[in-house]
Design brief:
It is a single chain. With 587 residues, the protein is an alpha+beta fold. The protein folds into 2 domains: 16-101, Sandwich (Immunoglobulin-like), CATH 2.60.40.10; 107-489 and 572-586, Glycosyltransferase. It is 34% helix and 13% strand. Helix 2 packs antiparallel against helix 15, helix 11 packs across helix 12 (454-472) and helix 12 packs antiparallel against helix 13. It is globular and about 75 Å long. Bound molecules: ligand 9MR. Residues 174-175, 177, 179, 351-353, 452-453, 539, 565, 569, 571 line the site of ligand 9MR.
Protein backbone atom coordinates (compact mmCIF):
# COMPACT_ATOMS: atom_id res chain seq x y z
CA UNK A 1 0.00 0.00 0.00
CA UNK A 2 2.64 2.48 1.03
CA UNK A 3 4.69 1.53 -2.00
CA UNK A 4 1.81 2.08 -4.38
CA UNK A 5 0.36 5.24 -2.91
CA UNK A 6 2.61 7.66 -4.81
CA UNK A 7 1.71 6.00 -8.07
CA UNK A 8 -1.98 6.19 -7.37
CA UNK A 9 -1.97 9.79 -6.30
CA UNK A 10 0.50 10.86 -8.92
CA UNK A 11 2.54 12.41 -6.10
CA UNK A 12 5.88 11.64 -7.73
CA UNK A 13 6.65 11.83 -11.43
CA UNK A 14 3.56 10.81 -13.38
CA UNK A 15 3.36 7.07 -13.81
CA UNK A 16 3.59 5.60 -17.29
CA UNK A 17 0.10 4.45 -18.12
CA UNK A 18 -0.96 0.87 -18.47
CA UNK A 19 -3.25 0.54 -21.47
CA UNK A 20 -6.53 -1.28 -21.08
CA UNK A 21 -10.19 -1.06 -21.97
CA UNK A 22 -11.46 2.09 -20.30
CA UNK A 23 -14.91 0.56 -20.10
CA UNK A 24 -13.56 -2.27 -17.98
CA UNK A 25 -14.18 -5.99 -17.97
CA UNK A 26 -16.94 -8.48 -17.29
CA UNK A 27 -16.15 -10.97 -14.53
CA UNK A 28 -15.91 -14.06 -16.73
CA UNK A 29 -14.21 -12.50 -19.75
CA UNK A 30 -10.50 -12.42 -20.57
CA UNK A 31 -8.71 -9.42 -19.04
CA UNK A 32 -5.58 -8.15 -20.74
CA UNK A 33 -3.65 -4.93 -20.16
CA UNK A 34 -0.50 -3.63 -21.83
CA UNK A 35 2.64 -2.20 -20.22
CA UNK A 36 5.03 -0.35 -22.48
CA UNK A 37 8.04 0.28 -20.29
CA UNK A 38 10.11 -2.79 -20.88
CA UNK A 39 13.13 -4.33 -19.28
CA UNK A 40 13.10 -7.49 -21.38
CA UNK A 41 12.42 -9.49 -18.26
CA UNK A 42 9.00 -10.42 -16.90
CA UNK A 43 8.07 -8.08 -14.06
CA UNK A 44 5.61 -8.30 -11.27
CA UNK A 45 2.22 -6.66 -11.64
CA UNK A 46 -0.31 -5.99 -8.91
CA UNK A 47 -4.07 -5.64 -9.09
CA UNK A 48 -5.13 -3.21 -6.39
CA UNK A 49 -8.62 -2.51 -5.12
CA UNK A 50 -10.05 0.83 -4.04
CA UNK A 51 -8.87 0.45 -0.48
CA UNK A 52 -5.30 -0.04 -1.68
CA UNK A 53 -5.29 -3.75 -1.02
CA UNK A 54 -3.48 -5.97 -3.52
CA UNK A 55 -6.03 -8.55 -4.63
CA UNK A 56 -4.03 -10.34 -7.33
CA UNK A 57 -0.49 -10.39 -8.60
CA UNK A 58 1.46 -12.06 -11.36
CA UNK A 59 4.29 -11.63 -13.85
CA UNK A 60 4.09 -9.77 -17.16
CA UNK A 61 4.49 -11.68 -20.41
CA UNK A 62 7.15 -10.08 -22.57
CA UNK A 63 6.14 -9.54 -26.20
CA UNK A 64 9.07 -7.24 -26.92
CA UNK A 65 9.54 -4.73 -29.70
CA UNK A 66 6.23 -4.20 -31.46
CA UNK A 67 6.19 -2.83 -35.01
CA UNK A 68 2.44 -2.14 -34.95
CA UNK A 69 2.59 0.19 -31.95
CA UNK A 70 6.23 1.20 -32.17
CA UNK A 71 6.71 0.38 -28.51
CA UNK A 72 8.21 -2.27 -26.33
CA UNK A 73 5.32 -4.34 -25.08
CA UNK A 74 4.59 -6.52 -22.07
CA UNK A 75 1.20 -7.97 -21.28
CA UNK A 76 -0.66 -8.39 -18.05
CA UNK A 77 -3.18 -11.19 -18.09
CA UNK A 78 -5.46 -11.08 -15.07
CA UNK A 79 -8.32 -13.04 -16.60
CA UNK A 80 -8.42 -15.32 -13.57
CA UNK A 81 -9.57 -12.49 -11.30
CA UNK A 82 -13.36 -12.33 -11.41
CA UNK A 83 -14.59 -10.32 -8.43
CA UNK A 84 -16.65 -7.25 -9.38
CA UNK A 85 -15.32 -3.93 -8.09
CA UNK A 86 -13.07 -0.97 -8.94
CA UNK A 87 -9.38 -1.58 -9.39
CA UNK A 88 -6.20 -0.34 -10.88
CA UNK A 89 -3.12 -2.19 -12.09
CA UNK A 90 0.44 -1.29 -11.18
CA UNK A 91 3.78 -2.61 -12.36
CA UNK A 92 7.08 -0.89 -11.58
CA UNK A 93 6.59 2.76 -12.45
CA UNK A 94 3.52 2.02 -14.56
CA UNK A 95 -0.06 2.29 -13.38
CA UNK A 96 -3.50 2.19 -14.93
CA UNK A 97 -6.42 4.44 -14.19
CA UNK A 98 -9.25 3.06 -12.09
CA UNK A 99 -11.40 0.60 -13.99
CA UNK A 100 -14.30 -1.66 -13.23
CA UNK A 101 -14.95 -5.36 -13.29
CA UNK A 102 -18.70 -5.83 -13.47
CA UNK A 103 -21.40 -7.71 -15.33
CA UNK A 104 -23.63 -6.17 -18.02
CA UNK A 105 -21.00 -3.84 -19.44
CA UNK A 106 -22.01 -3.86 -23.08
CA UNK A 107 -25.76 -3.24 -23.28
CA UNK A 108 -25.45 0.57 -22.97
CA UNK A 109 -22.72 0.55 -25.61
CA UNK A 110 -24.96 -1.35 -28.01
CA UNK A 111 -27.77 1.13 -27.37
CA UNK A 112 -25.64 4.22 -27.83
CA UNK A 113 -23.93 2.80 -30.92
CA UNK A 114 -27.39 2.26 -32.39
CA UNK A 115 -28.46 5.79 -31.42
CA UNK A 116 -25.71 7.08 -33.75
CA UNK A 117 -27.97 6.13 -36.66
CA UNK A 118 -30.81 8.23 -35.30
CA UNK A 119 -28.42 11.19 -34.98
CA UNK A 120 -27.34 10.68 -38.59
CA UNK A 121 -30.87 10.77 -39.95
CA UNK A 122 -31.64 13.05 -42.85
CA UNK A 123 -35.01 14.60 -43.57
CA UNK A 124 -36.34 14.67 -40.00
CA UNK A 125 -35.61 16.83 -36.97
CA UNK A 126 -33.45 15.14 -34.35
CA UNK A 127 -35.60 15.54 -31.29
CA UNK A 128 -34.54 16.78 -27.87
CA UNK A 129 -36.92 14.37 -26.15
CA UNK A 130 -34.87 11.51 -27.59
CA UNK A 131 -31.30 12.84 -27.67
CA UNK A 132 -31.39 15.75 -25.22
CA UNK A 133 -31.26 19.46 -26.05
CA UNK A 134 -27.54 19.43 -26.77
CA UNK A 135 -27.78 17.14 -29.77
CA UNK A 136 -31.19 18.14 -31.06
CA UNK A 137 -31.19 19.84 -34.45
CA UNK A 138 -33.64 20.82 -37.18
CA UNK A 139 -34.18 18.49 -40.12
CA UNK A 140 -31.51 18.50 -42.80
CA UNK A 141 -32.57 18.17 -46.45
CA UNK A 142 -36.21 17.91 -45.43
CA UNK A 143 -37.56 17.83 -48.98
CA UNK A 144 -34.88 16.28 -51.04
CA UNK A 145 -36.11 16.07 -54.58
CA UNK A 146 -33.01 15.65 -56.67
CA UNK A 147 -32.19 15.77 -60.35
CA UNK A 148 -29.43 13.74 -61.94
CA UNK A 149 -25.98 15.17 -62.47
CA UNK A 150 -25.79 16.51 -66.02
CA UNK A 151 -22.96 18.26 -67.79
CA UNK A 152 -19.21 17.93 -67.52
CA UNK A 153 -17.63 16.28 -64.51
CA UNK A 154 -14.19 16.98 -63.07
CA UNK A 155 -12.53 14.95 -65.80
CA UNK A 156 -14.45 16.66 -68.58
CA UNK A 157 -16.64 13.65 -69.13
CA UNK A 158 -20.07 14.72 -70.37
CA UNK A 159 -23.11 13.20 -68.68
CA UNK A 160 -26.58 13.57 -70.13
CA UNK A 161 -28.48 13.22 -66.84
CA UNK A 162 -31.85 11.52 -66.62
CA UNK A 163 -35.44 12.42 -67.51
CA UNK A 164 -36.78 12.48 -63.93
CA UNK A 165 -36.24 13.79 -60.40
CA UNK A 166 -36.52 11.49 -57.42
CA UNK A 167 -37.78 12.29 -53.96
CA UNK A 168 -35.00 10.72 -51.92
CA UNK A 169 -35.77 12.42 -48.61
CA UNK A 170 -34.65 10.45 -45.57
CA UNK A 171 -32.09 7.77 -44.79
CA UNK A 172 -28.84 8.33 -42.92
CA UNK A 173 -26.01 10.70 -43.73
CA UNK A 174 -22.98 8.55 -44.42
CA UNK A 175 -20.46 10.11 -42.11
CA UNK A 176 -19.09 13.58 -41.36
CA UNK A 177 -20.36 14.63 -44.78
CA UNK A 178 -23.98 14.79 -45.90
CA UNK A 179 -23.70 12.36 -48.78
CA UNK A 180 -26.12 9.44 -48.83
CA UNK A 181 -24.51 6.53 -50.63
CA UNK A 182 -26.24 3.32 -51.65
CA UNK A 183 -22.90 1.51 -51.64
CA UNK A 184 -22.10 1.73 -47.93
CA UNK A 185 -25.72 2.29 -46.94
CA UNK A 186 -26.08 -1.34 -47.98
CA UNK A 187 -23.48 -2.91 -45.73
CA UNK A 188 -24.43 -0.71 -42.77
CA UNK A 189 -28.10 -1.62 -43.09
CA UNK A 190 -27.31 -5.32 -43.62
CA UNK A 191 -25.23 -5.34 -40.45
CA UNK A 192 -28.01 -3.81 -38.33
CA UNK A 193 -30.59 -6.16 -39.82
CA UNK A 194 -28.17 -9.04 -39.26
CA UNK A 195 -27.99 -8.19 -35.55
CA UNK A 196 -31.79 -8.21 -35.54
CA UNK A 197 -32.08 -11.49 -37.43
CA UNK A 198 -29.64 -13.10 -35.04
CA UNK A 199 -31.55 -11.87 -32.00
CA UNK A 200 -34.65 -9.69 -32.44
CA UNK A 201 -34.43 -8.65 -28.79
CA UNK A 202 -30.73 -7.83 -29.02
CA UNK A 203 -30.96 -4.14 -28.19
CA UNK A 204 -33.75 -3.06 -25.86
CA UNK A 205 -34.11 0.68 -26.29
CA UNK A 206 -35.31 3.15 -23.69
CA UNK A 207 -36.69 6.69 -23.42
CA UNK A 208 -38.51 6.67 -26.71
CA UNK A 209 -35.35 5.96 -28.73
CA UNK A 210 -36.07 4.18 -32.02
CA UNK A 211 -35.95 0.41 -31.95
CA UNK A 212 -33.42 -1.40 -34.10
CA UNK A 213 -36.00 -2.37 -36.69
CA UNK A 214 -37.47 1.12 -36.93
CA UNK A 215 -34.01 2.60 -37.35
CA UNK A 216 -33.13 0.09 -40.06
CA UNK A 217 -36.36 0.86 -41.89
CA UNK A 218 -35.31 4.49 -42.26
CA UNK A 219 -32.39 3.45 -44.45
CA UNK A 220 -34.31 0.73 -46.26
CA UNK A 221 -36.97 3.24 -47.31
CA UNK A 222 -34.23 5.52 -48.57
CA UNK A 223 -32.52 2.78 -50.58
CA UNK A 224 -35.85 1.92 -52.20
CA UNK A 225 -36.22 5.56 -53.27
CA UNK A 226 -32.89 5.41 -55.07
CA UNK A 227 -34.15 2.89 -57.62
CA UNK A 228 -34.40 3.99 -61.25
CA UNK A 229 -38.02 4.10 -62.52
CA UNK A 230 -39.14 1.47 -64.99
CA UNK A 231 -38.87 2.35 -68.66
CA UNK A 232 -35.77 4.52 -68.18
CA UNK A 233 -33.08 4.49 -70.85
CA UNK A 234 -29.86 6.20 -69.81
CA UNK A 235 -26.51 6.87 -71.39
CA UNK A 236 -23.89 5.34 -69.07
CA UNK A 237 -20.27 4.22 -69.29
CA UNK A 238 -20.69 0.50 -69.91
CA UNK A 239 -18.06 -2.17 -69.58
CA UNK A 240 -14.72 -2.48 -67.84
CA UNK A 241 -12.55 0.60 -67.39
CA UNK A 242 -10.29 1.32 -70.35
CA UNK A 243 -7.12 0.56 -68.46
CA UNK A 244 -7.28 -2.81 -66.85
CA UNK A 245 -3.96 -2.28 -65.10
CA UNK A 246 -4.59 -3.33 -61.53
CA UNK A 247 -2.81 -0.24 -60.25
CA UNK A 248 -5.22 2.03 -62.12
CA UNK A 249 -8.22 0.20 -60.67
CA UNK A 250 -11.49 2.03 -60.82
CA UNK A 251 -9.69 5.35 -61.20
CA UNK A 252 -8.77 4.69 -64.80
CA UNK A 253 -10.63 6.28 -67.69
CA UNK A 254 -14.20 5.01 -68.00
CA UNK A 255 -15.26 3.00 -71.04
CA UNK A 256 -17.43 4.43 -73.83
CA UNK A 257 -20.99 5.42 -73.09
CA UNK A 258 -23.89 3.30 -74.28
CA UNK A 259 -27.61 3.93 -74.05
CA UNK A 260 -29.19 1.15 -72.10
CA UNK A 261 -32.26 0.11 -70.14
CA UNK A 262 -31.45 1.30 -66.61
CA UNK A 263 -34.86 0.40 -65.13
CA UNK A 264 -34.47 -1.03 -61.63
CA UNK A 265 -30.84 0.01 -61.15
CA UNK A 266 -29.94 2.16 -58.14
CA UNK A 267 -28.24 5.53 -58.20
CA UNK A 268 -24.80 5.39 -56.60
CA UNK A 269 -25.51 8.35 -54.30
CA UNK A 270 -27.31 11.58 -53.67
CA UNK A 271 -24.99 14.28 -52.46
CA UNK A 272 -23.91 17.89 -52.53
CA UNK A 273 -22.74 19.31 -55.85
CA UNK A 274 -19.69 20.71 -54.00
CA UNK A 275 -18.03 19.96 -50.69
CA UNK A 276 -19.49 22.08 -47.92
CA UNK A 277 -17.33 23.80 -45.34
CA UNK A 278 -16.72 22.53 -41.83
CA UNK A 279 -18.83 23.06 -39.80
CA UNK A 280 -22.17 22.94 -41.67
CA UNK A 281 -25.17 21.68 -39.73
CA UNK A 282 -27.36 19.62 -42.09
CA UNK A 283 -30.15 22.21 -42.03
CA UNK A 284 -27.68 24.92 -43.10
CA UNK A 285 -26.51 23.13 -46.23
CA UNK A 286 -27.38 25.29 -49.23
CA UNK A 287 -25.60 23.24 -51.86
CA UNK A 288 -27.57 21.71 -54.69
CA UNK A 289 -28.25 18.02 -54.10
CA UNK A 290 -27.81 15.72 -57.07
CA UNK A 291 -28.35 12.11 -57.94
CA UNK A 292 -25.23 10.48 -59.38
CA UNK A 293 -25.34 7.83 -62.09
CA UNK A 294 -26.63 4.38 -61.30
CA UNK A 295 -24.02 1.66 -60.86
CA UNK A 296 -24.10 -2.11 -60.75
CA UNK A 297 -22.60 -2.10 -57.24
CA UNK A 298 -25.33 0.19 -55.87
CA UNK A 299 -27.98 -1.86 -57.63
CA UNK A 300 -26.73 -5.04 -55.97
CA UNK A 301 -26.54 -3.35 -52.56
CA UNK A 302 -30.22 -2.55 -53.03
CA UNK A 303 -31.01 -6.10 -54.21
CA UNK A 304 -29.23 -7.69 -51.23
CA UNK A 305 -30.72 -5.49 -48.51
CA UNK A 306 -34.21 -5.42 -50.02
CA UNK A 307 -34.14 -9.24 -50.15
CA UNK A 308 -33.11 -9.26 -46.48
CA UNK A 309 -35.89 -6.75 -45.77
CA UNK A 310 -38.43 -9.07 -47.39
CA UNK A 311 -37.76 -11.81 -44.85
CA UNK A 312 -37.20 -9.55 -41.84
CA UNK A 313 -40.49 -7.66 -42.24
CA UNK A 314 -42.51 -10.73 -43.20
CA UNK A 315 -45.09 -11.08 -40.44
CA UNK A 316 -44.15 -7.62 -39.12
CA UNK A 317 -45.34 -5.55 -42.08
CA UNK A 318 -46.21 -7.83 -44.95
CA UNK A 319 -46.92 -5.02 -47.39
CA UNK A 320 -43.48 -3.54 -46.79
CA UNK A 321 -41.88 -6.98 -47.09
CA UNK A 322 -43.62 -7.49 -50.43
CA UNK A 323 -42.50 -4.06 -51.64
CA UNK A 324 -38.93 -4.94 -50.72
CA UNK A 325 -39.06 -8.28 -52.46
CA UNK A 326 -40.34 -6.76 -55.68
CA UNK A 327 -37.62 -4.08 -55.55
CA UNK A 328 -34.95 -6.70 -54.85
CA UNK A 329 -35.99 -8.86 -57.80
CA UNK A 330 -36.10 -5.82 -60.09
CA UNK A 331 -32.70 -4.63 -58.91
CA UNK A 332 -31.10 -8.02 -59.33
CA UNK A 333 -32.49 -8.37 -62.85
CA UNK A 334 -31.23 -4.88 -63.66
CA UNK A 335 -27.74 -5.77 -62.45
CA UNK A 336 -27.74 -8.94 -64.56
CA UNK A 337 -28.73 -6.86 -67.56
CA UNK A 338 -26.08 -4.22 -66.80
CA UNK A 339 -23.31 -6.10 -65.00
CA UNK A 340 -20.45 -3.68 -65.59
CA UNK A 341 -21.59 -0.16 -64.83
CA UNK A 342 -18.90 1.12 -62.47
CA UNK A 343 -18.69 4.34 -60.50
CA UNK A 344 -16.25 6.88 -61.86
CA UNK A 345 -14.09 8.93 -59.57
CA UNK A 346 -14.97 12.16 -61.22
CA UNK A 347 -17.47 14.09 -59.13
CA UNK A 348 -16.60 16.56 -56.44
CA UNK A 349 -18.68 17.21 -53.31
CA UNK A 350 -18.92 13.62 -52.11
CA UNK A 351 -17.02 10.38 -51.72
CA UNK A 352 -16.52 7.86 -54.50
CA UNK A 353 -17.19 4.39 -53.10
CA UNK A 354 -15.94 3.12 -56.45
CA UNK A 355 -15.51 -0.61 -56.85
CA UNK A 356 -14.16 -2.25 -59.98
CA UNK A 357 -15.10 -5.79 -58.96
CA UNK A 358 -18.75 -6.51 -58.32
CA UNK A 359 -18.54 -10.31 -58.38
CA UNK A 360 -18.82 -10.27 -54.58
CA UNK A 361 -21.89 -7.99 -54.69
CA UNK A 362 -23.50 -10.37 -57.21
CA UNK A 363 -22.84 -13.31 -54.88
CA UNK A 364 -24.15 -11.41 -51.83
CA UNK A 365 -27.37 -10.37 -53.60
CA UNK A 366 -27.94 -13.88 -54.97
CA UNK A 367 -27.41 -15.34 -51.49
CA UNK A 368 -29.88 -12.94 -49.86
CA UNK A 369 -32.46 -13.50 -52.60
CA UNK A 370 -32.02 -17.28 -52.42
CA UNK A 371 -32.40 -17.43 -48.64
CA UNK A 372 -35.51 -15.26 -48.85
CA UNK A 373 -37.19 -16.94 -51.85
CA UNK A 374 -35.61 -20.40 -52.28
CA UNK A 375 -35.68 -19.80 -56.04
CA UNK A 376 -33.46 -21.97 -58.26
CA UNK A 377 -32.36 -18.97 -60.33
CA UNK A 378 -30.60 -17.39 -57.34
CA UNK A 379 -29.19 -20.70 -56.15
CA UNK A 380 -27.61 -21.35 -59.53
CA UNK A 381 -26.11 -17.87 -59.55
CA UNK A 382 -24.58 -18.13 -56.10
CA UNK A 383 -23.28 -21.65 -56.68
CA UNK A 384 -21.65 -20.55 -59.93
CA UNK A 385 -19.92 -17.65 -58.16
CA UNK A 386 -16.22 -17.97 -57.29
CA UNK A 387 -17.11 -16.58 -53.85
CA UNK A 388 -19.03 -19.75 -53.09
CA UNK A 389 -15.67 -21.58 -53.03
CA UNK A 390 -12.84 -19.17 -52.25
CA UNK A 391 -11.88 -18.49 -48.62
CA UNK A 392 -14.03 -15.90 -46.89
CA UNK A 393 -12.39 -12.56 -46.13
CA UNK A 394 -12.86 -9.46 -44.00
CA UNK A 395 -16.17 -7.79 -44.83
CA UNK A 396 -16.13 -4.20 -46.01
CA UNK A 397 -18.05 -1.97 -48.38
CA UNK A 398 -16.02 -3.11 -51.40
CA UNK A 399 -15.95 -6.76 -50.19
CA UNK A 400 -19.39 -8.05 -49.45
CA UNK A 401 -19.05 -11.77 -50.21
CA UNK A 402 -18.69 -12.71 -46.54
CA UNK A 403 -22.02 -11.04 -45.83
CA UNK A 404 -23.65 -13.49 -48.23
CA UNK A 405 -21.83 -16.41 -46.65
CA UNK A 406 -22.93 -15.33 -43.16
CA UNK A 407 -26.53 -15.25 -44.36
CA UNK A 408 -26.22 -18.66 -46.04
CA UNK A 409 -24.75 -20.23 -42.91
CA UNK A 410 -26.91 -18.65 -40.23
CA UNK A 411 -30.39 -18.37 -41.82
CA UNK A 412 -32.56 -21.34 -42.69
CA UNK A 413 -32.60 -22.04 -46.43
CA UNK A 414 -32.97 -24.78 -49.01
CA UNK A 415 -29.19 -25.05 -49.40
CA UNK A 416 -28.14 -28.69 -48.80
CA UNK A 417 -26.75 -29.30 -45.30
CA UNK A 418 -23.41 -30.46 -46.65
CA UNK A 419 -22.93 -27.13 -48.45
CA UNK A 420 -23.96 -25.20 -45.36
CA UNK A 421 -21.37 -27.15 -43.37
CA UNK A 422 -18.68 -26.42 -45.93
CA UNK A 423 -19.49 -22.69 -45.88
CA UNK A 424 -19.50 -22.70 -42.09
CA UNK A 425 -16.04 -24.23 -42.13
CA UNK A 426 -15.01 -21.45 -44.52
CA UNK A 427 -16.23 -18.77 -42.10
CA UNK A 428 -14.57 -20.43 -39.14
CA UNK A 429 -11.33 -20.63 -41.15
CA UNK A 430 -11.59 -16.88 -41.80
CA UNK A 431 -12.09 -16.29 -38.09
CA UNK A 432 -9.03 -18.43 -37.37
CA UNK A 433 -6.96 -16.36 -39.78
CA UNK A 434 -8.07 -13.19 -37.99
CA UNK A 435 -7.13 -14.74 -34.65
CA UNK A 436 -3.75 -15.74 -36.09
CA UNK A 437 -3.07 -12.03 -36.73
CA UNK A 438 -3.08 -11.49 -32.96
CA UNK A 439 0.32 -13.12 -32.68
CA UNK A 440 1.80 -10.46 -34.93
CA UNK A 441 1.23 -7.40 -32.73
CA UNK A 442 1.94 -6.53 -29.15
CA UNK A 443 -1.52 -5.27 -28.24
CA UNK A 444 -2.86 -8.62 -29.43
CA UNK A 445 -5.61 -7.58 -31.80
CA UNK A 446 -7.00 -9.58 -34.71
CA UNK A 447 -5.84 -7.07 -37.34
CA UNK A 448 -2.67 -6.69 -39.38
CA UNK A 449 -3.25 -3.59 -41.54
CA UNK A 450 -4.29 -0.09 -40.62
CA UNK A 451 -6.05 1.61 -43.48
CA UNK A 452 -8.90 4.14 -43.72
CA UNK A 453 -11.49 3.05 -41.14
CA UNK A 454 -9.27 0.43 -39.48
CA UNK A 455 -11.52 0.37 -36.42
CA UNK A 456 -14.43 -0.54 -38.69
CA UNK A 457 -12.34 -3.28 -40.32
CA UNK A 458 -11.38 -4.60 -36.90
CA UNK A 459 -15.01 -4.69 -35.77
CA UNK A 460 -16.10 -6.36 -39.00
CA UNK A 461 -13.52 -9.03 -38.21
CA UNK A 462 -14.92 -9.19 -34.68
CA UNK A 463 -18.37 -9.78 -36.16
CA UNK A 464 -17.00 -12.76 -38.10
CA UNK A 465 -15.39 -13.98 -34.87
CA UNK A 466 -18.79 -13.63 -33.21
CA UNK A 467 -20.42 -15.71 -35.94
CA UNK A 468 -17.67 -18.33 -35.56
CA UNK A 469 -18.34 -18.32 -31.82
CA UNK A 470 -22.04 -18.91 -32.49
CA UNK A 471 -21.26 -21.75 -34.89
CA UNK A 472 -18.64 -23.53 -32.78
CA UNK A 473 -19.28 -22.45 -29.17
CA UNK A 474 -15.50 -22.26 -28.84
CA UNK A 475 -14.61 -19.55 -26.24
CA UNK A 476 -11.50 -18.53 -28.18
CA UNK A 477 -13.72 -16.51 -30.53
CA UNK A 478 -15.25 -14.52 -27.69
CA UNK A 479 -11.71 -13.86 -26.46
CA UNK A 480 -10.89 -12.49 -29.93
CA UNK A 481 -13.97 -10.26 -29.91
CA UNK A 482 -12.92 -8.93 -26.50
CA UNK A 483 -9.41 -8.25 -27.85
CA UNK A 484 -10.91 -6.18 -30.67
CA UNK A 485 -13.33 -4.27 -28.44
CA UNK A 486 -10.72 -3.68 -25.72
CA UNK A 487 -8.45 -2.11 -28.34
CA UNK A 488 -11.22 0.18 -29.54
CA UNK A 489 -12.04 1.13 -25.94
CA UNK A 490 -8.53 2.03 -24.86
CA UNK A 491 -6.10 -0.86 -25.07
CA UNK A 492 -4.11 0.87 -27.77
CA UNK A 493 -0.91 2.91 -27.90
CA UNK A 494 -2.83 6.18 -28.29
CA UNK A 495 -4.47 5.37 -24.93
CA UNK A 496 -7.73 6.59 -26.34
CA UNK A 497 -11.18 5.16 -26.29
CA UNK A 498 -12.16 5.52 -29.94
CA UNK A 499 -15.80 5.47 -28.86
CA UNK A 500 -17.04 8.86 -27.71
CA UNK A 501 -18.40 8.96 -24.18
CA UNK A 502 -16.94 5.57 -23.26
CA UNK A 503 -13.92 5.80 -21.03
CA UNK A 504 -11.94 8.43 -19.16
CA UNK A 505 -10.20 9.61 -22.32
CA UNK A 506 -12.41 9.20 -25.34
CA UNK A 507 -12.52 10.67 -28.84
CA UNK A 508 -13.89 14.25 -28.77
CA UNK A 509 -13.32 15.85 -32.16
CA UNK A 510 -14.56 13.70 -34.99
CA UNK A 511 -14.50 14.91 -38.57
CA UNK A 512 -18.17 15.83 -38.60
CA UNK A 513 -20.07 18.84 -39.91
CA UNK A 514 -22.41 19.08 -36.91
CA UNK A 515 -20.45 17.61 -33.97
CA UNK A 516 -17.78 20.20 -34.59
CA UNK A 517 -17.51 21.75 -31.15
CA UNK A 518 -13.82 22.55 -31.64
CA UNK A 519 -14.71 24.83 -34.58
CA UNK A 520 -17.85 26.41 -33.14
CA UNK A 521 -18.50 26.30 -29.39
CA UNK A 522 -22.24 26.58 -30.10
CA UNK A 523 -22.15 23.15 -31.71
CA UNK A 524 -22.00 19.95 -29.67
CA UNK A 525 -19.25 17.38 -29.63
CA UNK A 526 -20.12 13.80 -30.46
CA UNK A 527 -22.88 12.06 -28.52
CA UNK A 528 -21.89 8.86 -26.70
CA UNK A 529 -21.37 5.72 -28.76
CA UNK A 530 -19.72 7.12 -31.88
CA UNK A 531 -16.71 5.26 -33.28
CA UNK A 532 -13.70 7.03 -34.79
CA UNK A 533 -12.37 5.53 -38.05
CA UNK A 534 -9.08 4.96 -36.29
CA UNK A 535 -5.41 4.52 -37.09
CA UNK A 536 -4.56 4.77 -40.77
CA UNK A 537 -1.01 4.33 -41.97
CA UNK A 538 -1.73 3.62 -45.62
CA UNK A 539 -4.09 6.28 -47.01
CA UNK A 540 -3.03 9.40 -45.16
CA UNK A 541 -5.05 11.77 -47.30
CA UNK A 542 -5.99 14.60 -44.93
CA UNK A 543 -3.76 17.50 -43.81
CA UNK A 544 -3.36 16.14 -40.27
CA UNK A 545 -2.49 12.67 -41.50
CA UNK A 546 -0.02 14.06 -44.02
CA UNK A 547 1.99 15.63 -41.22
CA UNK A 548 2.16 12.28 -39.43
CA UNK A 549 3.12 10.33 -42.51
CA UNK A 550 6.34 8.41 -42.13
CA UNK A 551 6.57 9.42 -38.47
CA UNK A 552 4.09 7.09 -36.82
CA UNK A 553 3.95 3.37 -36.13
CA UNK A 554 0.75 2.06 -37.77
CA UNK A 555 -1.42 1.98 -34.63
CA UNK A 556 -0.28 5.48 -33.71
CA UNK A 557 -1.22 7.14 -37.00
CA UNK A 558 -4.23 8.89 -35.59
CA UNK A 559 -5.25 12.25 -34.13
CA UNK A 560 -8.35 13.50 -32.37
CA UNK A 561 -8.75 16.35 -34.82
CA UNK A 562 -11.82 17.57 -36.68
CA UNK A 563 -9.76 18.06 -39.84
CA UNK A 564 -8.40 14.50 -39.83
CA UNK A 565 -10.97 12.96 -42.15
CA UNK A 566 -8.78 9.98 -43.00
CA UNK A 567 -8.15 9.23 -39.32
CA UNK A 568 -11.02 10.52 -37.26
CA UNK A 569 -14.18 10.56 -39.33
CA UNK A 570 -17.19 8.55 -38.22
CA UNK A 571 -19.31 6.48 -40.60
CA UNK A 572 -22.38 4.27 -40.72
CA UNK A 573 -20.39 1.27 -41.97
CA UNK A 574 -18.05 1.53 -38.96
CA UNK A 575 -20.66 2.13 -36.27
CA UNK A 576 -22.80 -0.74 -37.61
CA UNK A 577 -20.35 -3.50 -36.63
CA UNK A 578 -19.92 -1.73 -33.27
CA UNK A 579 -23.67 -2.19 -32.77
CA UNK A 580 -23.48 -5.83 -33.89
CA UNK A 581 -20.49 -6.68 -31.72
CA UNK A 582 -21.67 -4.82 -28.60
CA UNK A 583 -25.07 -6.52 -28.88
CA UNK A 584 -23.33 -9.88 -29.27
CA UNK A 585 -21.14 -9.24 -26.22
CA UNK A 586 -24.13 -8.07 -24.21
CA UNK A 587 -25.82 -11.44 -24.44
O1 LIG B 1 -14.54 4.37 -45.97
C1 LIG B 1 -14.05 4.85 -47.21
C2 LIG B 1 -12.64 4.35 -47.39
O2 LIG B 1 -12.63 2.94 -47.51
C3 LIG B 1 -12.02 5.00 -48.63
O3 LIG B 1 -10.66 4.63 -48.69
C4 LIG B 1 -12.16 6.51 -48.53
C5 LIG B 1 -11.57 7.23 -49.72
O4 LIG B 1 -12.27 6.98 -50.88
O5 LIG B 1 -13.52 6.86 -48.41
C6 LIG B 1 -14.11 6.36 -47.24
O6 LIG B 1 -15.45 6.70 -47.24
C7 LIG B 1 -15.79 8.06 -47.05
C8 LIG B 1 -16.77 8.44 -48.16
O7 LIG B 1 -16.10 8.41 -49.40
C9 LIG B 1 -17.45 9.76 -47.94
N1 LIG B 1 -18.06 9.84 -46.64
C10 LIG B 1 -17.11 9.57 -45.57
C11 LIG B 1 -16.50 8.20 -45.70
C12 LIG B 1 -15.59 7.87 -44.52
O8 LIG B 1 -14.43 8.62 -44.50
Amino acid sequence: MALLAPLLLGATSPAIPIDLSQLGFQPDDPKIAIVTIGTGQPREWLLVDETGKTVARGMTEVFGKDAASGGYVERIDFSGFRTPGSYHLASGSSASTLFEIRPNLYAPLARDALAFFYHQRAGVPIEARIVGARWARPAGHAHEVAKCFAGKDERDILWSGCPYSLDVTGGWYDAGDHGKYVVNGGIALWTLLGAYERNPGAIPTTNGAPRLLDEARVEMEFLLKMQVPDGTRLSLPAGPPKSLAASAGWRSDPPDFATLDASGMAHQKVADARWTALPTPPSADTQERLLYPPTTAATLNLAATAAQCARVWKGVDDAFAARCLAAAARAYAAARRNPQIYATNSFTGSGGYGDGDVSDEFYWAAAELFVTTGKAEYRQALEASPHFRVPAGEPGWPQTATLGTITLTTRPSALPAVEVQRLRAMLVAAADRFLADEAGNGYRIPLAHYSWGSNGALLNRAMVLGVAGDLTRDPKYRAGVIDAVDYVLGRNPNRISYVSGYGADSMQNPHHRFWAHSLDPALPGPPPGVLSGGANSTAMADPVAMKLQGKCAPQRCWADDVHAYALNEVAINWNAPLVWVAAWLAE
